[in-house]
């Protein structure tokens, strides 16, 4: 009888452990309310990053950037794979711009993993630039990937595109 008791006891212990692991796995997933709060934090990071960019403050921008980042620039040859490369590219851009101002972000879409550790954000944003007495108004489409690092959201990768005024590819071809 002692041998048969071990088998049910072992099964009971294993089921208990599986239950604990299943509960801890569920605890790792964030609730809908937490997801809404985390998405708002992502938006706040993106806005703060844009404000730091407006102020030409790399020291502020770096607070919102991961150490291991990748950015694709508007120049097809521009692929940035380190924080130091990013700093050089940004400072080069800032040399050509006297001042700038971002408008309100719109068409914001954020996809987040179930654990609230990784997010993909895409949005549109107007940007006004002044350089050499000239004014330019642009509309940008922006994509960013963010991850949770030390309890804070940081930007891991990004790409920005300047939208065109044309309504279709056909209009561009006919020009």
Overall structural class, as computed from helix and strand content, comes to alpha+beta
Straight-line N-to-C gap: 90 Å
The low-confidence parts are 1-5
What share of residues is helical? Answer: 40-55%
Number of helices: 5
The average pLDDT is: 85
* Rg calculated over all Cα atoms: 24 Å
Helix/strand order: HHHEEHEEEEEH
Q: Which term fits the overall shape?
A: globular
Note the main sheet.
Answer: 7 strands, mixed
Please tally the β strands and state the result: 7
Strand content: 35-45%
Give the gist of this structure.
With 175 residues, the protein is α+β, with helices and mostly antiparallel strands.
Describe it.
The protein has helices at 2-28, 32-54, 58-61, 83-95, 169-174; strands spanning 65-72, 79-80, 99-102, 106-112, 118-131, 134-149, 152-162. With 175 residues, it is an alpha+beta fold. Strands 1, 2, 3, 4, 5, 6 and 7 form a 7-stranded mixed β-sheet that branches. β5 (118-131) and β6 (134-149) form a beta hairpin. The N and C termini lie far apart (90 Å).
Can you tag this structure with a few keywords?
175 residues, globular, 5 helices, seven-stranded mixed sheet, single chain, alpha+beta
List the helices and strands and how they pair.
Elements: H1 2-28, H2 32-54, H3 58-61, E1 65-72, E2 79-80, H4 83-95, E3 99-102, E4 106-112, E5 118-131, E6 134-149, E7 152-162, H5 169-174
Parallel strand pairs: 1-7
Antiparallel strand pairs: 1-2, 3-5, 4-5, 5-6, 6-7
């Amino acid at each position: 009888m002692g041998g048969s008791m071990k088998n049910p006891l072992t099964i009971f212990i294993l089921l208990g452990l599986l239950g604990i692991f299943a509960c801890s796995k569920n605890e790792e997933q964030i609730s809908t309310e937490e997801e809404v709060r985390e998405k708002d934090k992502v938006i706040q990071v993106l806005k703060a990053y844009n404000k730091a960019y407006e102020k030409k403050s790399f020291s502020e921008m770096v607070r919102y950037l991961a150490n291991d980042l990748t950015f694709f620039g508007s120049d097809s040859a521009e692929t940035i794979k380190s924080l130091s490369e990013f700093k050089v590219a940004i400072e080069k851009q800032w040399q050509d711009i006297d001042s700038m101002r971002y408008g309100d972000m719109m068409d914001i879409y954020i996809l987040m993993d179930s654990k609230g550790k990784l997010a993909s954000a895409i949005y549109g944003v107007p940007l006004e630039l002044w350089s050499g007495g000239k004014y330019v108004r642009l509309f940008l489409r922006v994509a960013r990937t963010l991850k949770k690092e030390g309890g804070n959201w940081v930007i891991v990768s990004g790409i920005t595109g300047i939208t065109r005024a044309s309504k279709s590819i056909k209009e561009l071809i006919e020009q």
